[in-house]
Design a protein that fits this description.
The complex is a heterodimer of chains A (253) and B (307). By secondary structure, chain A is mainly α. Helices cover 79% and strands 0% of the residues of chain A. In chain A, helix 2 (21-43) runs antiparallel to helix 3 (55-86), helix 2 crosses helix 5 (99-128) and helix 6 (136-160) runs antiparallel to helix 9. The chains are: A mainly alpha (253), B alpha/beta (307). The interface between A and B is medium-sized, with 27 and 36 residues.
């Protein structure tokens, strides 16, 4: 096991993040604050409680997930796409480091950033709305699992993308809609029955539902199902990555 | 002598169907400077990329210091340093950060003293805190070399190391490569500058259209294929070469003022003395003479064109 190699990639990626700390941390914090001002304070004050939780507090887990999902994907996809684009990937490929170790370095760093970001948003939210966390351990577990899973997903996108455009297209066209429609701002029980059924095909529903349960003990789907679906998606990503390194897809001619 | 790199029947066919390597066999000796020459698209970079693990071979095998590059990729790759042809570096990193990254990536524990030495040898020490983006092209090239040397490789690949580098820096690099060789590192370089191979290499391999067409000691190659020419600048123009001299390798320049004699450097008797005697017998006088040896470049061009 090349632990020095893993740590070199990990620290390189974190250093990249710290160079642009303002951009990478402040902008999600600002946009989240805007959501709280608009949805939490302005609109939320006129809305009834949802399943016993005030609307402002209700959207906290969803907003954190929204940022964690998009940031995990953009961080991890950029992290591996950039060296492919600039050509510096040659060094990683010629180093005595296995595919799995490369993934641990890049995805570990991206997930770390997402977890930190999630915690920062959590702290920011606390300034706007009072809330308490019923199951803090589960909250952290869901945060870590989601960050890892979507960083893996981002890593796959970063390998698949053959241009900057493709790098953006999945987060914008797929992930953002899924996250918005996945119950960030509402409980899916508020939807008409037909759309509730459709929503169950959205993997993000399970993530947000499980995460919200760890806060308030209320959820759209059973927490066990949420956990199961998260693991399922994690496993899928791992399988795709295993295949990528086995075949050299987009990495080696 | 023991081979440090052994390439056997290496074939590479790209997805496009282009066959870049058509069964390459090559032995690199421990501690030598080996120059790989060949025209563009001959397969030089493909060969190096396969040995270094960047490109997968279609078939065939490669060992580096006795380790199979696929089955024992960790052992094999940790011996190898690569300076690629393209200048690719992380523009926003400092020189110091990037060499530390490279060393870690290759699984070596931190060693600031070694990295300091590498940077000092490459005259980069005073730039260690500079961002790579701010460096000149020649300095970036040296940063690439520093990265490749950061993990103390036994084998160093230099793919076109002096492309786009000014004359002075090229000399510096040659000296650096020689001192590396003196410290026991085996060096394989590809180059377009035949002068470079002539200056540096112990042995020379020529690759053309995916096949190694020749591997030879540089001196042997020069002797075997080298021809010398003697040019005589005549006192008075000569209308034609006298019939008695027709059996010699003589040519008259178009302006009839120079007589050119081609001879083989390998032969014991070059025939110069008897030629000069014959010339004076025929009353052909000359004011100056000049001998020249064919360069590796001419040898190379004639080799590639024979195919």
């Amino acid at each position: 096991m090349n632990t020095y190699g893993i740590s070199a990639i990990y620290r390189f990626e974190l250093a990249r993040w710290f160079r642009t700390l303002v951009q990478s941390l402040l902008s999600p914090v600002i946009s989240t604050s805007l959501y709280f001002v608009v949805f939490g304070a302005a609109i939320g004050s006129r809305m009834a409680q949802i399943e016993g939780v005030s609307y402002g507090a209700f959207i906290v887990p969803g907003l954190i997930m929204l940022s964690v999902l998009t940031e995990s994907i953009s961080n991890a996809s950029f992290g591996i796409y950039m060296p492919r684009y600039s050509g510096t990937i040659y060094e990683v490929l010629s180093a005595p480091i296995s595919g799995m170790e490369i993934v641990i370095g890049y995805v570990g760093a991206a997930a770390t950033k997402s977890i930190m970001l999630g915690l920062v948003i959590l702290a920011t939210a606390r300034l706007f709305v009072p809330f308490s966390i019923e199951h803090p351990l589960w909250m952290v577990s869901f945060l870590v699992l989601t960050s890892l899973t979507f960083s893996l997903f981002g890593f796959i996108i970063g390998l698949w993308a053959s241009g900057w455009e493709k790098l953006q297209i999945v987060p914008i066209m797929v992930v953002t809609p899924l996250a918005f429609l996945g119950g960030s701002f509402y409980s899916i029980s508020m939807l008409p029955e037909f759309w509730q059924k459709v929503a169950l095909f959205n993997p993000v529903v399970y993530l947000i539902s499980g995460f919200r349960w760890s806060f308030y003990g209320v959820s759209d789907v059973a927490v066990g199902v949420s956990l199961g679906m998260t693991f399922l998606f994690l496993t899928l990503c791992l399988m795709v990555i295993w295949w990528i390194f086995k075949t050299g897809y987009r990495l080696k001619a | 002598m023991q081979s440090i790199i052994s390439v056997q029947n290496l074939v590479k066919t790209y997805a496009s169907g282009f066959q870049a390597l058509k069964g390459v066999d090559l032995e690199i000796r421990r501690g030598e400077i080996f120059a790989l020459l060949g025209p563009n698209g001959a397969g030089k970079t493909t060969l190096i990329s396969i040995i270094c693990g960047i490109v997968n071979a279609t078939s065939g095998s490669v060992t580096a210091d006795g380790h199979d590059i696929r089955k024992e990729f960790r052992a094999a790759r940790s011996k190898i340093g690569l300076v690629p042809q393209e200048l690719t570096s992380d523009a926003f990193e400092t020189v110091w950060a990037t060499v530390n990254f490279s060393r870690g990536l290759f699984g070596k524990p931190p060693n600031p003293a070694h990295l300091e030495k590498v940077l000092k040898d490459l005259s980069l020490w005073d730039k260690k805190d500079s961002i790579i983006m701010a460096l000149s092209g020649g300095m970036k090239r040296r940063v690439m070399i520093a990265k490749a040397l950061s993990h103390e490789p036994q084998i160093l690949f230099l793919d076109e190391p002096t492309a786009g580098v000014d004359v002075e820096l090229r000399r510096d690099m040659w000296n650096m490569v020689r001192s590396l060789r003196d410290s026991g590192v085996t060096i394989i370089l590809t180059t377009h500058y035949i002068e470079e191979a002539e200056e540096m290499a112990d042995r020379i391999g020529v690759i053309s259209k995916g096949q190694i067409i020749l591997v030879e000691e540089k001196t042997t190659l020069m002797r075997k294929l080298g021809r010398k020419q003697l040019t005589l600048y005549l006192q008075a123009p000569l209308q034609q070469i006298p019939a008695q001299l027709a059996n010699r390798q003589l040519e008259l320049s178009p302006d009839k003022t120079q007589l050119i004699y081609t001879f083989d450097t390998q032969a014991d008797a070059t025939g110069i003395a008897s030629l000069l005697r014959q010339l004076s017998e025929h009353g052909i006088d000359f004011k100056d003479l000049h001998t020249s040896e064919s360069s590796l470049e001419e040898i190379f061009v004639s080799l590639v064109h024979q195919r």
